Amino acid sequence: DIFQAVKIPVIGCGGVQSGRDAIEMMMAGARAVQVGTGIYYRGKDVFKLICQEIKEFTQEENIESLDEIIGIIHQNYQARNYVIRHS
């Protein structure tokens, strides 16, 4: 909702532990994602792990730039289904 209401970059916060969590926040409109919870559960290597998981996702889905998925859930039915299936 915030993504559609403002014209400034949105930062996704809360509960990010994996690349999938970060991707879902980006699909919802976040241009940046805060990681805190992930440090607690996965340790200090969480940043490297999240980056690797995002890289794997982009390769599997043939995504060349993360800009392609920023806010896509607001305009793409298939993206909404992806988030629902993986939640």
Describe the structure.
The protein starts with a helix and ends with a helix. The model has no long low-confidence stretch (mean pLDDT 87). Strands 1-2 form a two-stranded parallel ribbon. The chain is globular. The protein has helices at residues 2-5, 19-27, 37-42, 46-60, 77-85, and strands at residues 10-12, 30-33. Helix 2 (19-27) crosses helix 4. The chain has 87 residues and is mostly helical. 49% of the residues lie in helices and 8% in strands.
Topology, element by element:
Layout lengths: L1 H4 L4 E3 L6 H9 L2 E4 L3 H6 L3 H15 L16 H9 L2
Parallel strand pairs: 1-2
Helix pairs in contact: 2-4
What's the total count of β strands? Answer: 2
Strand order of the largest sheet: 1-2
| Stretches with pLDDT under 50, minimum 5 residues | none
Largest sheet: 2 strands, parallel
Structural class: mainly alpha
Approximate helicity band? 40-55%
Number of helices: 5
Q: How large is the share of residues in beta strands?
A: 5-15%
**Straight-line distance between termini:** 19 Å
Give the overall average pLDDT.
Answer: 87
Q: What overall form do the CA principal axes indicate?
A: globular
Succession of helices and strands: HEHEHHH
Radius of gyration: 13 Å
